[in-house]
Amino acid sequence: MVSDINQLVEYVGAMRLVTYFNVSAAAMLVYDYFLTLGMEVDLVWLSAWGPMKVLFIVQRYLPFIDAATFSLINQLLTTINPSVCKKIANAQAVLSVTGCILSELILTLRVWAVWKRSKFLGIALSILLLATAAACYVFTGLFQHGLKLSNRPYPEFQGCFITGTNRLLYVDWLALMVYDSLLLILMIIPGITAYREQGNEGLHAVVYRDGVVFYVYLFGKMKSTACLMMPSLPYILMQSYPLLT
Questions:
Q1: Long-range contacts of 222-230, Cβ-Cβ distance < 8 Å, separation of 24 or more
Q2: What is the per-residue pLDDT across 155-177, written as a single tens digit (0 to 9) for each?
Q3: Is the whole model's pTM more than 0.85, yes or no?
Q4: In what residue span(s) does the DUF6533 domain sit (predicted)?
């Protein structure tokens, strides 16, 4: 009995810590949104409608649903039941993976653009991205299938009470880390060439330097299995938008 109480206390403490991080991340997302809103209006809202504009808007606002809403609902409510928790968790998982893949698509298009839209590279990256997306959806589904939830251990318990799961989700991070490592290499190669040729320094700084720094940052985030809701991504999207349209 004492051991069960101790385990419950540790569980509640860990859940509170997760909630604190998610609330902080949601606040950072909202704060960053307003920091880059002016760039978004100038570069995106005033531009003509096209595939890139739709892709940008979906990727831009999807985190407000999965990261800033669903993740807080299933951690803060005291009246939520296991069946609702399961539905929210499944929806959040699908939206999160979709958001990650859309982000990878934009970053892939950025790399493809600096390689002068090579047909061969475009086909190769498309195949690799589809394989990465398939792996992420499959293993996320297996992870969600193994998720077990129970009724709240006491009336004041906040959020969903998870009693069992598996560790298959790490495959998602591994697949994304491998794919982003490839994108990093593909961004460095033309960047070195552009630096040696000493062309437009402003273009070099925006497209290559900032792009490489972002990919390195992204790789580090993947390696530490951190959340993909990165506050720096909108800035990279703003840079990529004129390059890809």
A1: 222/173, 222/176, 222/177, 222/180, 223/177, 225/170, 225/173, 227/25, 227/67, 228/96, 228/99, 228/100, 228/103, 229/25, 229/29, 229/63, 229/67
A2: 777 778 888 888 888 888 889 88
A3: no
A4: 20-65
